[in-house]
Write a structure and sequence with these properties.
By secondary structure, this protein is mainly alpha-helical. It has four domains: 69 residues, Endolytic murein transglycosylase (Dna Ligase, domain 1), CATH 3.30.1490.480; 82 residues, no CATH class; 98 residues, no CATH class; 47 residues, no CATH class. Helices cover 52% and strands 8% of the residues. The protein contains 14 helices and six strands. The strands form three sheets. A two-stranded antiparallel sheet has the order 1-2. β5 and β6 form a beta hairpin. It starts with 10 loop residues before the first helix and ends with a helix. The relative contact order is 0.07.
């Protein structure tokens, strides 16, 4: 016999039943929300994967169908890749120049190779109608970089260095003259004065595309400043009681007078010994420079010019050419000795004799004359030496 249903007469019991029904309803609602969210997320993920695959397929299709030259390449061409150019940008530049068939072909080759981002900025010597992979390989080979260089020579006068720079760059000599007529704006030490004579450091330089005269000249003057700092030129000149500018003047004379490396410090000592006793330096190199400044075709050793140390005492007003590092080093590190004279007795080997008196000097001169008379070739060299 079934028990009769219990009547709910206690208000508290009625409240408990209602609360239980609410909890069951809440649980069912939460489950429904979670199920809906899961469906939504799954659908979004599937949509994302499908979209990504579609984009990949599209990109692959575009690149896979990119036009490419079969090769081999044809005529040579120079191409400039500016700094910061992307792989896509490089592809566009190459396509515009006719090197590759399409930007897409280059992007595909660079992507497959993995070294596309290693291409450096610069000017490259390439070829027309190259397969994209070959064009990339040529861009990655430093041998294909076009390097614009010029070389300045030890002992050359400013006008001679200007001629070298003008020939290499195609920039007019007058533009260099305008820049090098003074020292401002060239990055030289504060003690540099007059013109840039003596301050174009002899070396080989690489200049950028489409340079100005200032761009080119500043490479050499900046190098001079660097070397002067490395040699501590100012402080070491002070130890000799001369200015750094005077040290450059001395170095320029050494550069023109000396044949052999070992003789440079000795010639520096001869110069300082003569200056100390007030004796004229008597350097042929300064007479030649003075004559050139006066527009003479041949050296006048008796020319009355402040640049001619055969006539006037002391150092010339400025450098007579571009000294190299060894000459600058010798100017601030002279050898120890009491020499007042030196004579190069063999112009072929550069053999030079040093003496401290006129008798020793006379013997060296006699030896030099004998060498000059030994052959026509020797005599020609002696005549050219003045």
């Amino acid at each position: 016999m079934n028990e009769p249903r219990r009547a709910v007469t206690d208000p508290e019991d009625a409240h408990d039943d209602d609360h239980e029904r609410e909890r069951r309803g809440s649980r069912r609602g939460l489950v429904a929300v979670l199920v809906a969210l899961a469906v939504l997320l799954a659908g979004g993920a599937i949509t994302y994967l499908v979209a990504r695959q579609s984009l990949q397929d599209l990109a692959s299709g575009l690149l896979g169908s990119a036009q490419d030259f079969p090769g081999p390449g044809q005529d040579e061409v120079e191409v400039v890749i500016p700094p910061g150019t992307s792989i896509t940008g490089i592809g566009a530049i190459l396509a515009d120049a006719g090197v590759v068939a399409s930007p897409e072909a280059f992007v595909k080759a660079a992507t497959q190779d993995g070294r596309g981002t290693s291409v450096q900025a610069g000017t490259y010597r390439l070829a027309l109608k190259l397969p994209a992979a070959e064009a990339l390989a040529m861009l990655l080979d430093p041998a294909n970089l076009v390097r614009h260089t010029f070389t300045l020579r030890e002992g050359y006068r400013l006008d001679q260095q200007v001629a070298l720079m003008s020939k290499a760059t195609g920039i007019g000599a007058d533009e260099f003259d305008a820049v090098l007529g003074g020292v401002k704006g060239l990055g030289l030490p504060s003690w540099a004065k007059r013109s840039a004579e003596g301050f174009l450091f002899p070396d080989t330089y690489e200049y950028p595309s489409d340079p100005t005269a200032l761009d080119v000249a500043s490479l050499a003057t900046a190098r001079f400043t660097q070397v002067a700092e490395e040699l501590d030129l100012k402080a070491r000149a002070g130890q000799l009681d001369i200015t750094p500018y005077q040290a450059v003047v001395v170095a320029s004379i050494i550069e023109k007078e000396v044949f052999r490396e070992a003789d440079r410090p000795k010639v520096a000592r001869v110069i300082y010994n003569r200056l100390a006793i007030g004796q004229r330096l008597g350097m042929d190199s300064t007479a030649a420079y003075a004559s050139w400044r006066e527009g003479l075709k041949h050296t006048n050793y008796n020319l009355d010019s402040p640049w001619n140390t055969r006539v006037n005492p002391g150092l010339p007003p400025g450098p007579i050419g571009s000294p190299g590092r060894a000459a600058l080093e010798a100017a601030v590190a002279p050898a120890e000795g009491d020499w007042l004279y030196f004579v190069t007795v063999n112009l072929s080997t550069g053999e030079t004799e040093f003496s401290s008196d006129e008798a020793g000097f006379a013997r060296s001169v006699k030896k030099w004359k004998k060498w000059c008379a030994a052959s026509d070739a020797n005599g020609e060299l002696c005549g050219l030496a003045g």
